[in-house]
Design brief:
about 375 residues, globular, 3-stranded mixed beta sheet, single chain, Pdz3 Domain
């Protein structure tokens, strides 16, 4: 007998993940599309999904320099596989001389804006989602609201009201950033700078590994309550979030999520400690994580589940934007490298040579993705 509840408990988070991925990819490709339109580049097709076409809509705006045998309007398509998407621009993969609507005939600056448009829209989406979340449910700040007796924080002299501003010389503006620094400390002493009534004070403390496998120093952060939060009757001294506070925090959050992959890579290369569970996962692994989180948070109700999924969407959007800017062949970052070379040399790299680099990189990238997918499937089984 089929367990309907069990099937739904697995199918719903998978559907949510597909919707999140579809939104993130759509926004990314929309960034390319809008920048291409701004530069006067003809977009041949704007596609959501990969594989065979399911639905096709013809745009109204016609090309001013139509090519015989090709469409003279943009095609908007929905494809069978709900993974990925693309914005196909005239003259991006081939050299089309004397065509004012071809990508290859635009200035280096215009082409750079087209390439970074995708990542920029991903970052904008993440900021909007982070802003909504922090405004509705609040956030934690690295301001000390309590110090636990006998723990490293108390032993080092940390006091209630201290604002932690730096750890090991790195600025700390988010509670998430503070936790990341603790997790990557490896139990080694850390230099903590605090602001105490306008005075800078430097402290040294050694995080301890608790029974749950997390490094802590024994302090409590301060909460900024969101508009949906109910304030306990016994709590007299508290602060609500403000629009400016939420905006500033959301900008700090996107900055944190952009920098973290590079910091993790640097730690990996220099053989420094990495946070527990830090690893590269495939789309299957991300889907499994979304499913696991959903199955836990759904027990708390619909609203906490919606808010948690929005948070995951923001993190995934920031991650995809960051990944696309890496200088890896076949990704946007590699195209930016070639454009930078062209700008310095005042001469474009041979299209054949650039195409070969992207093709080889794409094959290697597909092989890596296949390995990661296979590994994650084996783990799930």
């Amino acid at each position: 007998m089929i367990n309907i509840a069990g099937v739904m408990n697995t199918a719903i988070p998978i559907l949510i993940f597909i919707l999140i991925l579809g939104l993130v990819v759509f926004v990314h490709e929309l960034g390319h599309f809008l920048m291409a339109r701004r530069a006067g580049i003809f977009v041949e097709e704007f596609a959501l999904g990969m594989g065979p076409k399911l639905v096709t809509f013809r745009g109204k705006k016609k090309s001013s320099s139509a090519i015989e045998g090709e469409e003279d309007v943009t095609l908007y398509t929905l494809r069978a596989l709900p993974l990925g998407g693309f914005c196909k621009m005239r003259g991006m993969e081939e050299n089309i001389p004397d065509d004012p609507e071809a990508f290859n005939n635009k200035s280096v600056f215009d082409r750079i804006l087209v390439i970074i448009g995708g990542a920029a829209m991903n970052f904008l989406l993440a900021v909007i989602l982070f802003f909504i979340l922090t405004f509705l449910v609040g956030y934690w700040t690295p301001v000390v609201s309590g110090v636990q007796e006998g723990r490293p924080a108390e032993q080092a002299g940390l006091q209630v009201g201290d604002r932690i501003t730096h750890i090991n010389g790195s600025r700390v503006s988010l509670w998430d950033n503070f936790l990341f620094m603790l997790e990557t400390s490896g139990g080694n002493p850390i230099d903590v700078r605090v602001n105490r009534d306008g005075e800078r004070i430097n402290l040294v403390m050694t995080p301890v590994l608790d029974s749950d496998g997390v490094f802590r120093i024994g302090m409590n952060p301060t909460s900024r309550f969101g508009m949906l939060d109910e304030i306990p009757e016994w709590l007299v001294d508290y602060e609500r979030v403000t629009i400016l506070g939420s905006l500033g925090t959301s900008l700090d959050m996107i900055s944190f999520h952009i920098r973290t992959p590079f910091r993790m890579l640097a730690r990996f290369v220099t053989r420094q400690p990495l946070p527990e569970g830090a690893e590269v996962v495939s789309i299957v692994g991300i889907g499994a994580q979304v499913t696991e989180v959903y199955q836990v948070v759904i027990q708390r109700g619909i609203m906490p589940t919606v808010l948690t999924m929005l948070n995951l969407a923001a993190i995934i959007s920031a991650a995809i934007g960051t990944m696309n800017l890496l200088p890896i062949p076949a990704l946007d970052g590699a195209r930016l490298v070639f454009l930078a070379i062209e700008g310095i040399r005042r001469k474009p790299v041979s299209p054949e040579r650039e195409g070969t680099v992207h093709m080889v990189g794409f094959i290697i990238l597909l092989a890596l993705i296949a390995v990661l997918v296979l590994r994650d499937i084996v783990r799930l089984i």
